[in-house]
Amino acid sequence: MVKEVFESIEDYEKSLEERIQSGSMGYRKMFDLTGKVAIVTGATGGLGGPIALGLADFGCDVVVVGRRLEVLEKLKESIEKLGQRALAVKCDITSEEDVANLVNRTVEEFGRIDILVNCAGINIPKPAEEYPLEDWNKVMDANVTGVFLVCREVGKVMVKQNGGKIINVSSVRSSYGMPKNYIAYCSSKAAVNMITKQLACEWAKYNILVNAIAPTVIATPLTAHIMKDPELSKTMKSRILLGRWGYPDDLIGAVVFFASDASNFVTGQILYIDGGVTSWA
């Protein structure tokens, strides 16, 4: 894929003709992540692990991040079986010291950071009228403050490099409410969307592209309470046009797109991966 910026339409057309004559347009490699280095937070969760493996399958070296080191080490081994380098780092993303250590270790090991996927997040479902401030703060710390801190520290490296890709994991609940118990989660994911857009605005001049994916219900331990609630499960699935829950593999293509050269003219976007939920009100 051609990456240079053309001064004129004529320059672009000349390049196009040269590629035609060479017998290769170069597009087949636009999703290739060979030689790239990614950090995936929340890698011990139901989404982060598969996303880390998906990036590795496309040629990326991956730093897997979470609170449970034994789980991270197993994931590291799986990535290495795919032929890629990996590093497991135990980290509390709400701790400035831990996040700084994560970034330093990554740069020491790999020399750069090309991709960041902010996948860490929690939900504590309780009725809004009874929601404890303590639980509100826990959700906001993990889902908002943690995303900001990791973006900030990784962003410093990407600014020096003059380039990078950041993918935040949001949710359809950033724009659409839930029948019950989601006041903190929905609010936190709305904040993730705004972090995404604001960083895209501030960092475009450094060639740092910032986007988010916003899934509907993906079958993971985090959403098990929905599937176990007959009434809520029926309501939620009825909104999905494709008639099924999502699975972690449904997110890989979008993450690879945002991480790769295929998205080099895309920033500040929220991509809904929702089986059609947001297509109707």
UniProtKB/TrEMBL annotation:
SMART domains: PKS_KR. One of its GO terms (molecular function) is oxidoreductase activity, acting on the CH-OH group of donors, NAD or NADP as acceptor. Residues 36-216 form the Ketoreductase domain. Pfam families: adh_short_C2 (PF13561). Gene3D superfamilies: NAD(P)-binding Rossmann-like Domain. Belongs to the short-chain dehydrogenases/reductases (SDR) family. This is 2-deoxy-D-gluconate 3-dehydrogenase (KduD). It comes from Archaeoglobus fulgidus (strain ATCC 49558 / DSM 4304 / JCM 9628 / NBRC 100126 / VC-16).
